[in-house]
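Schema walk-through. Below, the input block comes first and the output block second. Nothing else is stored per chain. Lengths vary across the set, and this one has 355 residues.
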Amino acid sequence: MDSITYKDCKIHFKEECYLAINKHLKDKNFSKIFILVDENTHAKCLPVFLEKLDANTVIEIIEIESGEVNKNIDTCVGVWNSLSDLDADRKSLMINIGGGVITDLGGFVACTFKRGISYVNVPTTLLSMVDASVGGKTGVDLGHLKNQIGVISDPDLVLIDPNFLNTLPSNQMRSGLAEMLKHGLISDESYWNKFQDLTKLSLADLDELIYQSVVIKKNVVDEDPFEDGLRKTLNFGHTLGHAIESYFLSNPNKSTLLHGEAIVIGMILACYISSEISGFPMELTNDIKELFVNYYGKVNIDNTEYSPIIELLKYDKKNNHGNINFVLLESIGKPKIDCKVEDRIIINAFDFYIS
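--- output ---
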């Protein structure tokens, strides 16, 4: 697989990852290397990575607890303190090995420590391979509100080794697949059509599908790095999806949803709203709902919960001038940004999902 370049960042795949990182370490002569992991990637991924790393530089391991609940400023403070205690300087390198929590938080820590040190992302989940690690978005949650604090700043390298997917449970694989489905819906009908029988996808299929997803996101980010227009399309399903994810995260009576599980619901709702507002065929909306529900199941959302979820929409990052802006579809591969949606249509969308 050819490596991909966007702006000053290079994305490498499979064995090329290790050739690239070793050359980078030799060329840059970093003073120290700091590797951020959680307890899972420390045990399952770090030994594999270190075995292929050719470095004479001092390496320090910093471990944080896994899970979205730890993606916050308090965790950042702990990592910043560790970097300071271990004598990190501006010529240090941070390598983030993990899923979206690690790459988002680790990137933010690196971009802000001593006003910015170099960092490399090594995504180990499907979600982080096709989404979180690519595009330079870094950051953390503010309480239960998703990704409210952060900066856009690219890593030196992104290293995508699909072998790490062998360490993932099936629910994490499904979570990542949701973002790939989104890429198909917003940009490429032929890519979308490859997912019509999700039960037949194998790890061998995923290599090429991951590559195509990264190319789709890279092309969007190249054209709109700071989300002024086209990049907003990557938020399809995320306006309501993030609100649902935040609601479940903050409600002690609810089981926490994985990111992709919430985004699947958000995409079903967004397709229904698209049918009501932007001419997306209702037949396709029904097909998409059936495909998603058959593969992901249906999450129980009571109609008394619609209002508090809708209330959370005001924190969505696409909003401006007090308006809540949705990404909708006119057809597969033809998204429409900055759409205003009345609450009654959102409520009807929830009714459609739970029916």
